[in-house]
Every structure is written in C-alpha cells, then in structure tokens.
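Is this the right way to post structure tokens for a design question? Let me know if I should format differently. Anyway, here goes:
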C-alpha cells in the first residue's frame, strides 16, 4: 500500500513540474546570461596503455561520451528546494542545470508538491546564489564538481561578496569539507550558506556552473588551495590504498593482497583514517601507488610534477575511467588489474595476477 501511494505521489510531482533548460532557451530571453558553454570529447584519442582488454574496452567507451562545461546566470526569482537542490522558476519550471543530468536525462527525482506548497515552510532569502551539491557525499565529487566549480567561478570573476554558496547540510558535516576550510584561507573567506532539508532558499540571481570531469585545469587550481601542505620528504614511498572497511569494491582476500604488497615494500594506508593534511603529504611523497578504484585515489593530484606509477584494481563489472584520465592529464604511468565480478559489495583478486605486475616494477 505504501509503495502504491509513493508511486502515485511521484506521478503527481512529475505531472505538475516541467523541466526547462537555460541554455539557448528562447522563452527565457533576457533572463539568462551565458558566460560560457562548451561541449567536447576531452579524452577521445588519449593513448590507452597496455591494460587488460576489459579495462581498455571500458576506457574507450567512456572516452566517447560527450562532456559539457558551462556557466549561466539566471536573473529573476528562484526558489531552491532543499532535498535535491532543484531551482524552481516561474512557479512550476525546474531548471535542468540545477541538478545532475547525463546525456540530457535527468537523474534526480522531482520535488514534493506537498512540501513546495506547504504554507508554513521555512524560506531564507539571499541576494545572489550559486548551488554546489553534485555528489557532495563523495570525496572525488567534492574536489572535481564542487571545488572545481567554485574555482572556475572565481577565475571568471563571478564570486562577488554578495554571492552565497549554497551547500546541503550533509556536506557541512563532512570531514573533508570541514578540514578543507581549516587548511585554506581562501575557502574560509567565501560566504557559505548551509541549507537543511526543511529550508527553501529564495534568490534574486542564481549562478549555475558545471566543469569537465577529471580535467587538470580545475585540479591544478584545487592543488593551489593546499600548496603549503605539499611537504617533501627525503625519500619517496610506495603505498597500497586499502578499502577493507567500505561497503563497495571490497577485496574478499584483502589480507592476502595486503601481505603480498607489503612483501614488495608497500605501506598499507586507509584514507578514511588520515586527516586531509596527512593525505596530501602521503600522496605527495608516493612514487608508487596501488589501490582499488575509489575516491581516495583522487589524492594522486598532489603528486603533480613528479613521477608516479599508479596501478588501479577493478572488479570486472565496474571499471570507471576517473583515475586513468587524471593520470593521463598529469603524465603519470598507469596500469590496471581486473578481478572477479563484484557481488554484494566485494570481489576477488588473483594474487598471482597482481604479483606478475609487481615483478615488472
């Protein structure tokens, strides 16, 4: 019964709201200022090294996906709902650029009509807003999509003192957000506004920004925020980034794999057990890194301008390109090893397969 009611509510929400695009929309002429917009295949033609065939196939597939980068400003009344971050204009129109979409397909549920029309709902008014919340619960998304967007807006001169940076309450409690502000004077200087799940925000002018995935131009700007903490040690290290305490992409035989890499001089680390400052220093000084695909590998950016050999471990049925592309951008040496299919969050890696690659290093 509950499922049926939930489905009916979802249909009503979908029927009431309409998604509109800001880009080149004749109905919004005079309301939308396009600062920049580009579409490209930034990784098409990038040399793919001698990785396993299943990894190569996946990397080639991702390279053929169109990527988009834009900045728009909408001048006019906008209501920003608190659950998904939808911008609502002209009473019932949802701004497509305010949430995540892929190949024009919106991946986010519509807002609740009941909450939207609730007469007692809390509304906070700001002069100008930029909403950054894409993947806020993920370390890589925080660096790529949130800090990347903020730093692009700064570069374009759009982060004026009257601009509020809206973030969901969940992000404000994340250790990487808290520690980033502790380490960066620039980030502390911005006007962050935390939006809880019961508060709507009304803005007179709203900025929408999207950056390219895994592109060096925004990560170089991120690195500058933390440059004082790139402390070089006397000798470079070899590290293995474990995921033994996570819900996804866990190695079934992590004890066996960790013992193997330790016998080759690798130190096992868990990023979640290190502060942001410690992660920056550890990865800055790592010449060899092995790790299962996960957001912690974002830290390879802190090895910029130095030699790095990255060996990434994947389950057979989940081979995203993030760190291959980052490695290509920074000129790092990259290889991959593929285990069994991931089932219920874990997969098996043949230690002999891994050791054959360790012997070649």
């Amino acid at each position: 019964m509950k499922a049926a009611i939930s489905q009916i509510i979802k249909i009503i929400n979908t029927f009431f709201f309409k998604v509109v695009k800001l880009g080149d929309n004749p109905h919004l002429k005079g309301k939308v200022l396009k600062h920049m917009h580009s579409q490209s295949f930034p990784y098409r033609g990038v040399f793919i090294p001698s990785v396993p065939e299943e990894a190569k196939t996946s990397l080639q597939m991702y390279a053929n996906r169109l990527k988009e980068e834009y900045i728009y400003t909408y001048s006019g009344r906008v209501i920003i709902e608190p659950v998904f971050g939808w911008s609502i204009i002209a009473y019932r129109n949802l701004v497509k650029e305010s949430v995540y979409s892929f190949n024009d397909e919106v991946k986010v549920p519509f807002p609740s009509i009941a909450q939207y029309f609730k007469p007692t709902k809390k509304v906070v008014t700001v002069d100008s807003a930029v909403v950054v919340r894409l993947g806020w619960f993920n370390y890589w998304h925080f660096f790529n999509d949130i800090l990347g967007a903020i730093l692009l807006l700064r570069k374009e001169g759009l982060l004026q003192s009257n601009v509020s940076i809206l973030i969901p309450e969940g992000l404000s409690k994340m250790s990487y957000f808290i520690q980033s502000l502790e380490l960066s004077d620039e980030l502390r200087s911005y006007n962050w506004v935390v939006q809880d799940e019961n508060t709507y925000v009304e803005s007179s002018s709203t900025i929408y920004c999207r950056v390219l995935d895994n592109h060096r131009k925004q990560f170089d700007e991120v690195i500058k925020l933390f440059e004082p903490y790139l402390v070089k040690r006397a000798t470079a290290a070899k590290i293995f980034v474990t995921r033994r305490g996570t819900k996804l992409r866990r190695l079934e035989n992590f004890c066996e794999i960790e013992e193997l890499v330790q016998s080759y001089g690798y130190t096992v680390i868990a990023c979640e057990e290190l502060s942001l400052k410690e992660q920056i220093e550890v990865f800055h000084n790592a010449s060899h890194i092995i790790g299962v695909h996960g957001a912690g590998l974002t830290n390879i950016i802190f090895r910029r301008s130095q030699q790095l050999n990255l060996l990434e471990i994947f389950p057979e049925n989940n081979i995203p390109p993030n760190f291959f592309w980052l490695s290509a951008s920074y000129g790092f040496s990259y290889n991959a090893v593929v285990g069994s299919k991931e089932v219920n969050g874990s997969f098996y890696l043949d230690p002999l397969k891994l050791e054959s690659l360790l012997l070649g290093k």
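Format looks fine. Someone answered above. Worth noting: Residues 139-155 form the longest helix (17 residues). The two ends are 59 Å apart (CA to CA).
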